[in-house]
């Protein structure tokens, strides 16, 4: 399957970032490089030594690791998502829990195990994840959940996951913008549960095995300027109890929901019938 073209910016398909950016918090910069005996061998090792104003810069390489951050800010910068890969076979490679601020960028997160895990887990966190990739999750590639979840998830690739690409649920209210969600086995982007209300703007959901976007079980969402094309079913699937903005009758003019084999939009009580749920 052909992947979308990207710019040569950090996280794109250009040259890797050669030097760490200036630390906006004024702290130290800790270097991760498995080939350099003077650097940290894994990102998790650098995180153990990092203070709240320190940033971690990951040089090009493939790292088997599990990055877990809880109850503290994070500043984790990779040399580019086509040049830095963090993979795990014993759980998701990135798990954020109650992270109050910070940024993660320029990294591919890949789950290579067989149990039910996602590539990126974001629980009740308010940081930014940008120019990353989440791939091969056995669940959805990215799960953003919890009533305090206000993360910004922007300009990422979410692809080839066994369920949906991005799944927002349990009252989360993130900003989800300018992401490419493709090649996922279910939906490109899914939102579930009362209180869940993401801002979904300018995302492209294509070549997913069900539909581009799913709203179900009392979910709310702002849906503007998204493109859902070339998916196997519809552009957008909703249950009658959901509350999108703009209202249902305006969604087809506020977003691009064609071409898809079954059409642009459908409202159904059984959005998961095709997968036996």
From TrEMBL:
Keyword Repeat: yes
Ranges where the Right handed beta helix domain occurs: 103-235
Key words, A-Z: Repeat
Taxonomic superkingdom: Bacteria
Repeat keyword on record: yes
Ranges where the record places region Disordered: 1-28
SUPFAM superfamilies: Pectin lyase-like
PANTHER family per the UniProt record, alphabetical: F-BOX ONLY PROTEIN, F-BOX ONLY PROTEIN 10
Name of the protein described by the UniProt record: Right handed beta helix domain-containing protein
Organism of derivation: Nitrospira defluvii
């Amino acid at each position: 399957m052909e992947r979308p073209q990207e710019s040569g910016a950090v996280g794109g398909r250009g040259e890797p970032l050669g030097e760490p950016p200036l630390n906006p918090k004024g702290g130290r910069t800790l270097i991760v490089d498995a080939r350099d005996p003077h650097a940290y061998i894994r990102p998790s090792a650098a995180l153990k030594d990092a203070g709240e104003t320190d940033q971690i810069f990951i040089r090009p390489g493939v790292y088997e690791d599990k990055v877990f951050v809880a109850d503290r800010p994070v500043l984790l910068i990779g040399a580019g998502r086509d040049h830095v890969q963090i993979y795990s076979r014993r759980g998701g490679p990135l798990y954020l829990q109650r992270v109050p601020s910070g940024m993660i960028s320029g990294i591919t997160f890949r789950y290579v195990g067989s149990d039910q895990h996602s590539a990126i887990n974001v629980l009740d966190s308010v940081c930014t994840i940008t120019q990353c990739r989440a791939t091969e999750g056995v669940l959805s590639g990215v799960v953003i959940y919890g009533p305090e979840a206000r993360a910004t998830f922007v300009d990422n690739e979410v692809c080839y996951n066994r369920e949906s690409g991005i799944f927002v649920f349990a009252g989360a209210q993130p900003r989800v913008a300018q992401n490419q969600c493709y090649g996922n086995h279910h939906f490109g982007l899914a939102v579930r549960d009362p209180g869940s209300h993401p801002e979904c703007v300018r995302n492209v959901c294509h070549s997913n095995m069900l539909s581009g976007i799913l709203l179900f079980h009392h979910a709310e969402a702002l849906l503007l300027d998204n493109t859902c094309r070339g998916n196997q079913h519809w552009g957008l699937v909703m249950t009658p109890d959901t509350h999108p903005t703009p209202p249902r009758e305006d969604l087809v003019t506020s977003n691009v929901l064609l071409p898809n084999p079954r059409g642009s939009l459908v409202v159904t009580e059984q959005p998961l019938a095709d997968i036996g749920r």
